[in-house]
Amino acid sequence: QVQLVESGGGLVQAGGSLKLSCAASGRSLSNYAMGWFRQAPGKERELVAARGWSDRIPYYADFVKGRFAISRDDAKNLAYLQMNNLKPEDTAVYYCNAGLSITSLHRGGGAYWGQGTQVTVSS
Predict the structure, then answer these.
(1) 31 DSSP assignment
(2) Residues 6+ apart with CB under 8 A from 28
(3) How far apart are CA 31 and CA 88, in angstroms?
(4) Is 103 within 8 Å of 41 (Cβ atoms)?
(5) What is the pLDDT of residues 54-113, one digit of tens each?
(6) 117: which strand partners?
(7) Alpha-carbon gap, residue 86 to 99, rounded angstroms
(8) Could you give the CA distance from residue 70 to residue 51 in angstroms, rounded to a whole number?
(9) Where does residue 78 rank: exposed (0-12), middle (13-18), buried (19+ CB within 10 A)?
(10) Element (H or E) spanning 104, and its range?
(11) How many CB atoms neighbour CB 10 within 10 A?
């Protein structure tokens, strides 16, 4: 079992930056693929970024490439999403997610979810 708790969201102007954190307990993050999803009101949840459990190859959605960076500190059981050059369309609730493989994240998400943290980008 894995428990995930996100933090770091907030209000930022367009072009600004935020760094989201995901603290895990119950299992080591090294055993799981990790990723970040987001969901805006009235829209479907979408995968933003992910990193596999074995080779840790990063994945980025096209709409965040060059702006966001996913990282993980398995020794501290933490995962991060550095968000730069934020845009109003990035406004959403961001969720940390863990699964058995990166494939599970691409298919809607792994079994473990955080509670979400709100990111609001003003224009």
Answers:
(1) G
(2) 74, 77
(3) 34
(4) no
(5) 666 799 999 999 999 999 888 899 999 999 999 999 999 999 999 999 999 999 999 999
(6) 94
(7) 27
(8) 7
(9) middle
(10) helix 102-106
(11) 13
Q: Please name the residue that has the structure tokens 């702006």.
A: 67
Q: How far apart are CA 33 and CA 53, in angstroms?
A: 4
Q: 57, 61, 78: which is closest to 8 by C-alpha?
A: 78
Place of tokens 């970024």: 49
Note whether 101 and 112 are within 8 A (CB): no
Model confidence at 1, pLDDT cuts 50, 70, 90, reads confident
CB 9 within 8 A of CB 20: yes
What span, in angstroms and rounded, lies between the C-alpha atoms of 19 and 49? 13
